[in-house]
Write a structure and sequence with these properties.
eight-stranded antiparallel β-barrel, 2 domains
């Protein structure tokens, strides 16, 4: 029995030693590959020519997601093509619930959901890059493009006679929209068929901090500011000034891959 245990121990130790050596060899090869990429970049050779990523962003008045395709033209410059979809809200929005009836919460006086959809081009400039796999590359991004304001009418459920109906602002039942009695807010399906579009333009600038810049996997944080201008004023909430120009700050997290 002792011999069996001894044989099992020897086999296990051999496998463990082999696995550790294999791991060390892979790490050594990876370090050598990264060192070679760093050396080539110093000579002007592009390490990764293209990238694809997606991100989630928190805006000072909303939130959004975006997708990006990148193409490097040199070690320090790249062009980024971006598609972004977000929801923006009025700062004074106040979500309420009906204390007597189980219904969806509502925002009193809200006219429209506001969904900016942006399609644009950014220029990326490398500011700094640490020479190891866990280094942080810092880039400056700037650019802009088209912004389409999708306005989805906000419906509230009110009591009309003996029935519960949905009404929106600027309709024959606008008085009920404001004075109710309001039962609840809209379901997710309400308002899409009545959506309108207001075109505009936007400009954006940002700093991006890319962790592990010599890895194929992208993991980054971006902070920036955006300005949007639309051809008409955007009605979001009653008794709040309508605006054509929106200025905002944001922070986003990004994940993707480069090759």
């Amino acid at each position: 029995m002792r011999k069996i245990f001894f044989i099992i121990f020897i086999i296990s130790f051999s496998f463990s030693t082999s696995a550790q050596q294999s791991k060390k060899q892979r790490q050594k090869e990876k370090r050598a590959r990264i060192n070679n990429m760093i050396k080539e970049e110093e000579e002007g050779v592009i390490a990764y020519k293209s990238s694809f990523l997606f991100g989630a962003k928190l805006i000072n008045d909303g939130y959004g997601i975006f997708f990006e395709l990148g193409h490097a033209s040199s070690v320090k410059k790249a062009t980024l093509y971006q598609l972004e979809i977000s929801e923006r809200k009025a700062i004074k929005e106040d979500k309420q619930s009906n204390a007597f009836i189980n219904s969806a919460p509502f925002i009193y006086g809200k006219e429209n959901f506001f969904y900016p959809v942006k399609l644009g081009i950014m220029q990326q400039i490398l500011l700094g890059n640490k020479s190891n796999k866990n280094g942080v590359s810092v880039t400056a991004n700037y650019g802009g493009g088209l912004s389409m304001a999708l306005l989805r009418p906000y419906y509230v459920q009110v009591q009309k006679g003996n029935d519960y109906v949905y009404v929106k602002y600027n309709s024959p039942d606008s008085a009920l929209f404001l004075n109710g009695p309001i039962i609840g807010g809209p379901t997710f399906s309400k308002g899409w068929s009545d959506m309108t579009v207001t075109p505009g333009l936007y400009a954006k600038t940002a700093l991006r901090f890319d962790y592990g810049s010599y890895n194929e996997i992208i993991s980054a944080i971006e902070v920036g500011i955006t300005g949007e201008y639309y051809t008409k004023k955007i009605p979001i909430l009653l008794q709040t000034p309508e605006k054509q120009f929106f200025f905002s700050g944001y922070v986003s997290i990004l994940f993707g891959k480069r090759k």
